[in-house]
């Protein structure tokens, strides 16, 4: 049966085209998917996941990653931190029947009219050696002792090797007005890397939005699973949080108005110098009167069916 037997317009997007587009974006805009401290400018080989970069990015000297401040060492009296990197290394979508990747047992098989999403993220963090910690510890202890003495008004002299100076006792206690210092990373020799894989299953539906007369295509989430995190309650808590973020923070930003999915018929005719003199209204084909599913997620594609209603004129 031709796709337009019971609809006036038909559109479809194959999963391969979406995944190919994602790979191109990852190669041409690596800074959107890789985050790290400035240390990595001269140590690209230490990233946890190797990533490909388009030659044009290198020639233009565009950033390969987005710079981040070192991870602060909580409680340390000095602004010191650890180098780290955070990467989204893989991203793919799979439309029913599902042949791009397998799903974890918790999500089962990909059922009819559903799509699956796979994301893989990696993080690497420096772990200071005993030698570095033992070298820093006396300086930190001496710094803390000097601060206590200054706060108590017991000394007005700078203590050698503590990087401090005399300040009135109250100012020594209350540092809120002092300009924030940049975090200094400790020397890095190697990273501890780990990766997590996330799988999600969802579907699409047509719907309205309060305050808008348009019809919108909306992605919805059915289930989410992070592979192999222990203990189980920690995994459940993280999955619950990510599910909430997707449902309330990310997916609502991805809804698409019907008019953006197809050509504006009236405007296209006007570009050709033709005036319809009528109003062309676009709406989704009805389910099940016109088509079994709309949108339809099947045959490795997402398909959408539309009807045109022409009003006005002679």
Task: Give a verbal description of the structure.
There is one protein chain. With 314 residues, the protein is α+β, with helices and mostly antiparallel strands. The chain has two domains: 15-128 and 188-261, no CATH class; 132-185, no CATH class. It is built from seven helices and 14 strands. The protein has helices spanning 15-28, 55-59, 130-151, 169-173, 232-250, 258-261, 265-271; strands at residues 9-14, 34-36, 66-67, 71-72, 80-82, 84-95, 115-126, 184-185, 191-207, 216-226, 256-257, 279-284, 296-298, 301-311. The strands form three sheets. Strands 3-2-6-7-9-10-11 form a seven-stranded mixed beta sheet. Strand 2, helix 2 (55-59) and strand 3 (66-67) form a beta-alpha-beta unit. It is elongated, with a radius of gyration of 28 Å. The protein starts with 8 loop residues before the first strand and ends with a strand. 14% of the residues are buried. Mean pLDDT is 87; it is low at 159-174.
